[in-house]
Structures are given as C-alpha cells and as structure tokens.
Amino acid sequence: MSRTIGTLTIRPLDPLTDAELVHGWVTHPKASFWMMGDARLEDVEREYMAITSHPHHDAFIGLHDGEPAFLMERYDPAEVELKGLYEAEPGDIGMHFLVAPTDTPLHGFTLAVITAVMKELFADPSVLRVVVEPDVRNDAVHALNKAVGFEVLREITKPEKTALLSACTRERFQATTGGLS
C-alpha cells in the first residue's frame, strides 16, 4: 500500500475476542447495508461463531498498521449467500467487506481496503473470480467495485434485499488495478 495509507494485513476473526469490536462496527449507522443495526452483542457473537465454524464461510479482521480497521468475509457462493441464485463457476469465491467507522477518515483508505481484500482472495491460486451481491442502493460500494474491476452481471432478489450481482476475474482485477503485487 502507499505510504499515505500504511500497511494493511488480514488475520482470522475470533468470534469470542472480536465480537465486541465487530459489534461496534456492524451496528454503526454507516454500516446500514450490513443489516445488523439492531444486533445485540450476543447476536454478533452468535453470527460470527456460525460463520467461523461453517465449512464454506470465513471471517477476518483487517488491520491498518496493526490496528483493527475492517471486516472481511469469504464464502463459497455455490453453498452460502448465492446458492441457487446464480450459476456458480469453478474458481468462484464470494466476498463481503466493511470498513470500520472512524472520526479521522483517510483519503483513499476504502479503495486500499477493497484492493487488499481482492489481493488476499486472489492469493489463493484456485480463485479465478470474486462474486459479490451488494444492495442495489449501495452506490458507494458499486463505485468501489467498479474501481477494482467488478462487472455487473444482473440484479437478483435475495430474501433480505435486491442485490446487484457482480463479478471480477483475476485478469480483470490485474488489468484494472495494475496487478497483484
């Protein structure tokens, strides 16, 4: 990452020790599209216990210069979230990310985070395409997705939202962002 952004690293989320931190993030008004605004601490702990113990879903804490700064989820879209809603291809991986709310925003930080998340996902050679399903109303994330190479496939209806199914191949990410280095 650039000198102005700092160092971004990713570690596995521990639902017991990270639940309080994540609770503050997912219940913040800026996280409205995360749909956990009314969640209690116990709800968040239970949700992330389920995710981290699921065979097709993982959660991670992203660190900015060693301090927790974002949440990342990785899932198999043929088994979780998008099962039965699209034709999964070999090498597909699903992703969610959430940048922690802050009183001192850093210009370019969210773009750096999604870029780091994509690099992390593509570090696995079996991943050929990242698939996402953000709410159709989430214009900010649509712009970020486009900036790292996502292409809109179509609108889909999920039980909790109308989503914009989008995908980004490894090649498109490399061409859009300048590579995986």
TrEMBL record:
<protein>
    <recommendedName>
        <fullName>Lysine N-acyltransferase MbtK</fullName>
    </recommendedName>
</protein>
<keyword id="KW-0808">Transferase</keyword>
<dbReference type="Pfam" id="PF13523">
    <property type="entry name" value="Acetyltransf_8"/>
</dbReference>
<dbReference type="InterPro" id="IPR016181">
    <property type="entry name" value="Acyl_CoA_acyltransferase"/>
</dbReference>
<dbReference type="GO" id="GO:0016410">
    <property type="term" value="F:N-acyltransferase activity"/>
</dbReference>
<comment type="function">
    <text>Acyltransferase required for the direct transfer of medium- to long-chain fatty acyl moieties from a carrier protein (MbtL) on to the epsilon-amino group of lysine residue in the mycobactin core.</text>
</comment>
<comment type="pathway">
    <text>Siderophore biosynthesis; mycobactin biosynthesis.</text>
</comment>
<feature type="domain" description="Acyltransferase MbtK/IucB-like conserved">
    <location>
        <begin position="11"/>
        <end position="58"/>
    </location>
</feature>
<dbReference type="InterPro" id="IPR019432">
    <property type="entry name" value="Acyltransferase_MbtK/IucB-like"/>
</dbReference>
<dbReference type="GO" id="GO:0019290">
    <property type="term" value="P:siderophore biosynthetic process"/>
</dbReference>
